[in-house]
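User: Just a sanity check before I run the rest of the batch. Below are the structure tokens for the first item. I only need the designed sequence back.
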């Protein structure tokens, strides 16, 4: 691999998701980093279809469901 750029970055996952990723990493005998990188490669095309924040500015805000539930 010529010139692979390796930078350290902190990412934060919900506890349950992190546990699921860890189980899969253990199953495949791979690192957490490798699992997340592969997931990004697989999901990238789908994620790019999500609207950006700038695409939805001006839309009316969604109702706050907490008010309906008495929170």
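Assistant: Here's the designed sequence for the first item:
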């Amino acid at each position: 691999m010529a010139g692979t750029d390796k930078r350290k970055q902190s990412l934060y996952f919900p506890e349950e998701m992190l546990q699921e990723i860890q189980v899969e990493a253990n199953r495949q005998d791979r690192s957490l980093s490798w699992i997340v990188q592969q997931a990004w490669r697989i999901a990238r095309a789908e994620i790019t279809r999500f609207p950006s924040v700038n695409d939805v500015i001006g839309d009316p805000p969604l109702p706050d469901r907490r008010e309906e539930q008495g929170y």
